[in-house]
Automatic annotation (TrEMBL), chains A, B:
The keyword DNA-binding applies. Transmembrane segments: none annotated. InterPro entries: Homeodomain-like_sf, HTH-type_TetR-like_transc_reg, HTH_TetR, Tet_transcr_reg_TetR-rel_C_sf. Residues 1-10 have a biased composition (Pro residues). The keyword DNA-binding applies. Keywords: DNA-binding. This is Helix-turn-helix domain-containing protein. Residues 1-23 are annotated as: Disordered. Residues 39-99 form the HTH tetR-type domain. It holds the Pfam family TetR_N. Residues 62-81 bind DNA.
Length: 222, 222
DNA sequence: ATCCCAAACGGACCGCGGTCCAGTTTTCTT
DNA sequence: AAGAAAACTGGACCGCGGTCCGTTTGGGAT
């Protein structure tokens, strides 16, 4: 019903490279050669959106407002980014890619080279920090319940955790377990705990380390 | 900004008894004495909504449609249930209360009387079954990211898990851990895993038992 | 029986996300 | 250089969630 026909010629790969960085294969699809004017408008839109967020918070970012601020038609915004979530995710894309790169090729313990459990610990702490930085944006960019688990960034992170988990606890159902671990790092949860329950970041980190220890049946560090 | 003034005289306790069953205190606020016509319309609306869901699925339940089907003004729907989520949650309320009752006073291992870890296991399996039954409704009733963790039913479930957890693993941060456990039982996740990844219910249950075992550092049953 | 007012009502109204399509611009082909 | 297909554009348009406010009504007080 909702996926009947693409509203536009292409539903458009939403946030730039959609499948990018498929776990190890360095293949990037790169921008699929947008037309000159399209590329220019895309940049304008992203810049306008960022400005609006800075000024009025993520809630004030209306598709119409972004279009107007970029001196562009409303239809253009949707053509380029698919929907509001797509636009917001595109704004997160840069930091997302940097994070992915750090996971795949950065220095240990985040990147390869450290033992898996240690990488898991580092992963969670890094996620927590990143999440706190961009909290409102991450919150606003959350897709609807049906798409939440199929969004590209999420899939990547889950794959990564599942991989580490497979190494650390080969006897477990790492696919299911990875969902559980990732849920602890959910933006909405972090938001709730820090803003509404007064839980300190330190406690969150401790909670993550403890969780990893329990799940992998190892002893907590230090 | 969004919580400035209640849109209506009362934001209205959304889904009937809001705080009901505060962990052990048998206090129920009961309906705060709705006027006769209000009560009648409330019933009509719930019935109409249920019918619409049965006919067109949860997605087809428009506030306007519900109002029309109940021969009632649109404003009335919002006055009574606050917003769309409120209406949907009200539809789940009955099953919700039954479940709460089973947890608080039902026979073991779900209710009191069994050791905490065993109750946790039973809790998860029961949740999984209940979730599968009402999947689409649960999915549609999911509140926005900001309110997801403050909704009354969620709070109750979390409190329950935290309680069991405190008994089973007194040395852990049971508040944080309870969020993690509950996340495994999230409707959107269950939906994703079963519908889109072809994960069988049996595997989900096994995953839960394993998760409980790891988190409580006990051995898996059987 | 009558009065009175808080509570409830209902539908006009608004803003936003999302769609559509007629017209314009770019780029490819020959 | 010219023509045509493909890609892109913009703004009118739609439906829905949510709000507002003038009107009606139930039910306690007298």
């Amino acid at each position: 019903m909702s996926a009947a026909l693409p509203p536009f010629p292409k539903p458009q790969e939403t946030t730039g490279p959609p499948e990018l960085l498929q776990l190890g294969t360095g293949i990037e699809k790169d921008e699929p050669c947008l037309r000159a004017d399209a590329a220019r408008n895309r940049a304008r839109l992203l810049e306008a959106a960022a400005r609006l967020i800075a000024e009025h918070g993520a809630a004030g970012v209306t598709m119409e407002a972004v279009a107007a601020a970029a001196s562009v038609g409303k239809g253009t915004v949707f053509r380029r980014f698919g929907d509001r979530t797509g636009l917001l995710m595109a704004l997160l894309d840069h930091s997302e890619k940097k994070f992915q790169a750090a996971l795949l090729g950065g220095p240990p313990p985040l990147g390869p080279g450290a033992p898996p459990v240690e990488r898991l610990r580092a992963f969670g702490c890094a996620m927590l920090r990143r999440c706190v930085e961009e909290l409102d944006l991450q919150l606003a960019a959350e897709p609807s319940a049906e798409r939440r688990y199929t969004a590209a960034p999420r899939r990547f992170l889950r794959g990564h955790v599942a991989l580490l988990l497979r190494q650390a606890v080969p006897d477990a159902d790492s696919e299911l377990l990875s969902h559980t671990l990732l849920a602890y790092l959910d933006a909405a949860l972090i938001h709730h705990l820090t803003e509404q329950c007064g839980v300190s970041p330190a406690r969150l980190e401790a909670g993550w380390l403890d969780l990893v220890a329990r799940v992998t049946r190892t002893r907590p560090p230090a």
